[in-house]
Design goal:
It is a single chain. By secondary structure, the protein is α/β, with parallel strands linked by helices. The chain is built from 14 helices and 17 strands. The strands form 5 sheets. The chain has a 5-stranded mixed β-sheet, with helices on both faces. Strands 7-6-8-9-10 form a 5-stranded mixed β-sheet, with helices on both faces. A hairpin with an 8-residue loop joins strand 4 and strand 5. Helix 5 crosses helix 6. The longest helix has 15 residues. The chain starts with 8 loop residues before the first strand and ends in a 5-residue tail after the last helix.
């Protein structure tokens, strides 16, 4: 059984994700590690996070390992501290941008990198071979590593050196993993920062706020003369950017970061990595600067693996994940926000700096999977459907993929016939017949 999806193990707490799952993961990591392995554990603010931490830690101890509790920090902090402290594994307890009732387990190896598919298979086999109904005892007390927030802030600011004096920033922390260190980082960078949704309240995480709901930040920014606004998601790995009361499209954010690195002579091989969902307009604009775009499958782990293979130091996803691998091994929304502030201080308006990046018309749609149509995802049938729709609409680039976190098929198309292509796919699934 493979426990892992697109980004770790994820599900509705108490249903598709249980304390038992966390225990099995913890014990498996301990058994697969070196003698008396060290597992670093971090979480976001979700109510279920405490129970999952307790079960995960008990699993580690049961397997002969030790735990370091990092408390509540952004996901990338796990990978960072695994490397810094010499841990064997790291686990982030989070469901990222999902609603409060969900939770998940993102696993990092000793290099601070999320587990690749082959390592996921090894862990899944170990978990499947253990008792599937482990006994989880009462809560254990594992104190948070002393002063960890300040250590994280020190490390980030030593990497991204930026002076934000007189820059007025609005920051939406989404009641999530960045709720505390967000203000700390921008304050230390001398920004005039106003922080919203910065309480430890897992019941409100991602609810009508954050990177996936920028209307909240937009309304707040209209009430003050802010230079820039940033919105984090639940585990502070994805970022939304606002300037002049306008949401800066993620494609322009990606372009601006790539352009800046190229102009500074810091873009390795003058090549960046996007995904199959990176808009064609981004590729065209990058090519205009002499920058090549490579595409990976969706998922920041896939982006990172492609970057490693090709020797690249920048990549990202349309969803708002950006990997600055001179600083990190996974996307860190706060590091990315500070980096964008650096660009803003040196180049001025981000919107103007990325103005030559113009997106091709695109359409996205989530198509629910049911018992009657799920067979259309079996084997090569999904890609066969994509191929036949593409033949009908040859001027359109179409991507179909089954979600690893939700029970849907995600359809993306770009070009003049994008809407017709997506409608055709939706009709195929709604009628559970091949009409092509």
């Amino acid at each position: 059984m493979n426990f892992f999806g697109t980004d770790g193990i994820r599900g509705t707490y108490g249903s598709t994700l249980t304390d038992g799952t966390a225990f099995l993961l913890g014990k498996s990591l301990a058994l697969l590690g070196e003698e008396c392995p060290i597992v670093l554990i971090c979480r976001d603010t979700r109510i279920s996070g405490e129970n999952l931490f307790n079960a995960l830690a008990q699993g580690v101890y049961d397997g002969g390992g030790n735990v370091i509790n990092l408390g509540i920090l952004p996901t990338n902090a796990v990978g960072h501290f695994v490397r810094k402290m010499g841990g064997d594994y790291g686990v982030m307890i989070t469901a990222s941008h999902n609603p409060p009732q969900d939770n998940g387990l993102k696993v990092f190896d000793r290099y601070g990198v999320k587990l690749c598919p082959s390592k996921q298979e090894v862990v899944s086999r170990m978990m499947s071979g253990l008792c599937q109904n482990p006994e989880i005892k009462g809560k254990i007390f594992e104190p948070v590593f002393y002063d960890i927030e300040n250590i994280y802030c020190d490390d980030v600011l030593s990497a991204v050196d930026v002076d934000l004096s007189n820059v007025k920033i609005a920051l939406d922390c989404c009641y999530g993993a960045g709720y505390k260190v967000g203000r700390m980082l921008f304050s230390r960078a001398k920004a005039n920062v106003t922080v919203f949704c910065n309480r430890n309240n897992g019941k409100l995480i991602n609810q009508n706020c954050g990177a996936t709901n920028t209307s909240f930040l937009l309304e707040k920014m209209k009430q003050g003369d802010y230079s820039l606004g940033f919105a984090l998601d639940g585990d502070a790995d994805r970022l939304a950017v606002v300037e002049n009361n306008v949401v800066v499209p993620n494609s322009k954010v990606f372009f601006a970061m790539a352009r800046y690195l190229s102009e500074k002579g810091r873009l390795r091989n003058n090549t960046v990595c996007g995904t199959v969902l990176t808009n064609g307009g981004v590729e065209s604009a990058l090519n205009g600067l002499g920058i090549r775009l490579l595409r990976s499958d969706v998922g920041d782990t896939n982006v990172f693996n492609t970057m490693v293979k090709k020797g690249l130091n920048f990549g990202g996803e349309q969803s708002g994940h950006y990997l600055l691998c001179d600083y990190t091994t996974s996307s860190d929304a706060l590091i990315n926000a500070l980096f964008l502030c650096k660009i803003y201080r040196e180049k001025g308006s981000l919107l103007k700096y990325a103005s030559q990046c113009v997106e091709i018309t695109s359409v996205s749609k989530n198509i629910p999977l049911t018992e009657s149509n799920i067979a259309l995802c079996d084997g090569d049938r999904l890609q066969n459907t994509a191929g036949r729709v593409s033949q009908l609409y040859p001027d359109c680039r179409l991507v179909l993929r089954k979600s690893g976190t939700e029970n849907v098929v995600r359809a993306y198309a770009e070009g003049a016939q994008a809407q017709k292509a997506v409608d055709c796919v939706a009709a195929t699934f709604s009628q559970n017949v091949n009409r092509l």
